[in-house]
Amino acid sequence: MSRSRLPGLVALMALAGVLALPLLALLSRALGHLAEAGEAWDVALNSLALSTLGTLLTLGLGLALGWAALLGGVGRSLEGLLLLGYFIPPFVTGMGVLFSMELLGLRLPGALAILLAWTLHYTPLAYVLLKPALGNLLPSLRVARVHGVLGGKRVRVLFPPLLPALLAVGGALYLALLGNFGVPAVLGLPDRVYVLPTLAYARLTSPVSPDPLGEASALGLLLGLLALPALLLHRPPQVEALGEGFTIPYPVSRLLFGAYALLALLLAGMGLLKEALFNPYTGSLQPAFSEALAMPLVRQGLLHSFLLAMAASLATLLLALLLRPFPGAFRALRGLFDLYYLLPGTLLGLGLILLLAPTPLYATVWILLLAYLLNFASLAFRALEAGARVEAQVAAARVHGLSPFRAWLRVGFPLLRPQALGGFLVIFPLALSEITLSALLYAPGAETIGVAVLGALNGGLYREAAAIGLLLALVGTLPLLARRGPW
Fold it and tell me: Which of 26, 99, 304, 408 is the one with CA 20 to 30 A from 454?
């Protein structure tokens, strides 16, 4: 190793140590409460079973939709209809399922309702991540057909090349479901169906627990252990645009794709629309938006969430831009931030409580901002990572006499403007409707809109909660504006 790289390596290791402090604080506090964690084995099994089953359901539907899209030549409009369901915040999807089931006169048990909401929300993500791998298999399918390999025999030909993508996407989905707090909080708690994130929150806020923070930390450690296998096996799925030549036009497949996308959107949205727009007693049109926005907690939560989302989006993108000219440091730091994005947010929230409880940051909006920065920085770095063309243009500018700084200032950064805008349109809605970290870290006077909506829902203000949920769903569709081609 050259001496010129040694200071950078030391600085990177020091930064990695600082970023690991919340997790180390969680580990040290949880070790003394392992007995309490062991008593929650039934909730751990519930989390494991629900997350595994939800992963299998979303993977299966994602595969079916990806295959239908390739066979039917699905265009951007139908894809956009499907993706709308993913960009609605998860806990808003949970509210939509709750109200839609009531509208249809159905009563689903808590576990089934959670699985339905997870499937509606995360199937579009599975579709986006699996479609490129399926597209790469189409030439093999044609070759197999030519050689007489038909029916079930094709599975033996196509499954082995697809397995790495299935493992990568399955691991990402499992981690997302395992750490999800909003959907189980909306659909599980009323039926006393607990998962580890909701139980950790219940222990943390328990007035009768002798050591609520220690017990919650032990549950967080158990959650981390369940996440560890998927985290160790995780490989970022490759998402590449497919050429039009890789489609086989079967209109029935396109029709089935569109039918599912529309049905999923109706299940997630029609109950919200009915609850927010119509008077439950007279049935007349009477939107609840003004009543919802008149609630002081909602107004305060909207302001805090807007400022936090704006600050987190701009700060993480600025950091990524500043490090973009240094590829080694950029990739290394992105890898560190990936950990906090992939791990359940409950671990980060509890770790920050343990680490910063003795400091003035605790119980303020600033601890929320720090949590948002750590959680969403990975998205900013990945948004700006695609840059072979940028690197080439910067190199060309340097050949023509510009210094490295001026080459990036005049050529590189302007070329990254579309990626930065796309990153903002992804991070801002996610941060605006964030609820896992907010539920753990907020304090009176520092509530976010997610906390306000859950408070309204728990207080029986269903119409107001549905109205704010619709507004958050509308903002959540902003990432669709960043799409510049098929995903």
Answer: 26
| Residue 156, domain member (yes or no) | yes
User: Mean pLDDT of successive 10-residue segments in the chain (487 residues)?
Assistant: 59 74 84 78 92 95 87 79 87 91 88 94 91 72 54 60 82 91 90 91 83 87 87 61 46 84 91 89 87 90 92 94 85 85 88 89 90 92 75 77 79 83 87 90 86 88 90 82 50
SS3 at position 152: coil
**Tokens 């751990």, residue?**
44
Q: What is the DSSP string of 230-293?
A: HHHH--PPP--PPPGGG----HHHHHHHHHHHHHHHHHHHHHHHHHHHB-TTT--B---HHHHH
Cβ neighbours of residue 474 closer than 8 Å, sequence gap 6 or more: none
Report the phi/psi class of residue 401: left, alpha or beta, with left for phi > 0 and alpha for psi in -120 to 50: left
d(CA 376, CA 134): 29
- Which tokens sit at 344? 């359940």
One domain, residues 257 and 331: no
d(CA 144, CA 1): 50
Q: What is the CATH number of the domain that holds 452?
A: 1.10.3720.10
Structural domain of residue 351, as residue ranges? 296-460
pLDDT at 388: 54
End-of-domain residue from the set 283, 313, 342: 283
C-alpha atoms less than 13 angstroms from C-alpha of 98 in its C-beta half-sphere: 26
Which parts of 350-391 are beta strand (E)? none
Domain endpoint, select from 256, 283, 310: 283
Write phi, then psi, for 278 (nearest 5 degrees).
-120, 140
